[in-house]
Amino acid sequence: MYKQIIRPLLFQFDPESVHHFSFKSLRFAHQVPGIPQFLRSKFTIEDKRLEREVFGLKFKNPVGLAAGFDKNAGLFKELSSLGFGFIEIGTVTPKAQSGNPKKRLFRLMEDSAIINRMGFNNKGVDEAVKRLKKNTDVIIGGNIGKNKVTPNEEAVNDYDYNFEALFDYVDYFVVNVSSPNTPNLRALQDKEPLTRLLNHLQNKNQKKSKPKPILLKIAPDLTESQLLDIIEIVNTTKIAGVIATNTTISRTGLTSENKEEIGGLSGKPLTKSSTDVIRFLSEKSNKAFPIIGVGGIMTAEDALEKMEAGASLVQLYTGFVYEGPSLIKAINQAILDKTS
């Protein structure tokens, strides 16, 4: 129904407007008696064989929603009823910011892809906290970044503020230094500044009575030498793991007319490069840390390939937009079929 009726209708309109409309529609639907139960029955698979324990957390299934969809933690409960095992909110910044000028979100239909240059548009971490205080049972990841106006030399202060604000309300943290849409942000992936940032957060973390897992989200455009640095940094800072990968700045092989739009590319063109990064990290580190695989998961087979490459969990974004919530169920069913 989604691909045959709903998606063709939604795709007639501006992508960002559709995103906000979908949010409002899902929120409204959950206020109608019986709808939340119906959605759970249609899309959720409850099975002990799907449960995963990763970096000390127990996930009811390994399929999560990637950051960028629910930036302000406004819809995590409703989204979880579609079958997700966990929801990652953000990227949040200390202060609210409007992001980059519109138009900033583009569908590449011929390539089953999306280009975005949103620029960490969000209402600020304190607004997200207000909503997260109402959470009771959804595993939440907090994806944190810096404000656009904050120079890289002071970026640690932004990440520190986010960390302290969210600490009591998320289950794990994701340090985002890999978005291509905030000027100079990716420079923080360099070995020295990244080690300094992660060590700072880990020092704060270890002083808590119950430290939270901290993960690093990396770009798919890193060289093998840079990926080896990432492995060393994870081992040195003792963070919990890596999310591979964010969007790419590559435009190789695209055919859509708007392929040259500036921003990060996600979707099918990212499938192989993301999986290759996962496999490289897993093999070269001897599976020393968990990896969450994200990037170009458009089918259940794509998710299984990422798990076979070394991912403990997977996340959806563009595949969720193109395929709808049935993709979540298809992945979980494929995992069950493989284990039976």
Automatic annotation (TrEMBL):
Molecular function via GO: dihydroorotate dehydrogenase (quinone) activity
Top-rank lineage group of the source organism: Bacteria
Pfam families named in the record: DHO_dh (PF01180)
Active site: S179 (nucleophile)
Pathway connected to this protein: Pyrimidine metabolism; UMP biosynthesis via de novo pathway; orotate from (S)-dihydroorotate (quinone route): step 1/1
Positions of the Dihydroorotate dehydrogenase catalytic domain: 50-336
Alphabetical list of PANTHER family matching this protein: DIHYDROOROTATE DEHYDROGENASE (QUINONE), MITOCHONDRIAL (PTHR48109:SF4), DIHYDROOROTATE DEHYDROGENASE (QUINONE), MITOCHONDRIAL-RELATED (PTHR48109)
Function: Catalyzes the conversion of dihydroorotate to orotate with quinone as electron acceptor.
HAMAP family, alphabetized: DHO_dh_type2
Official protein name in the record: Dihydroorotate dehydrogenase (quinone)
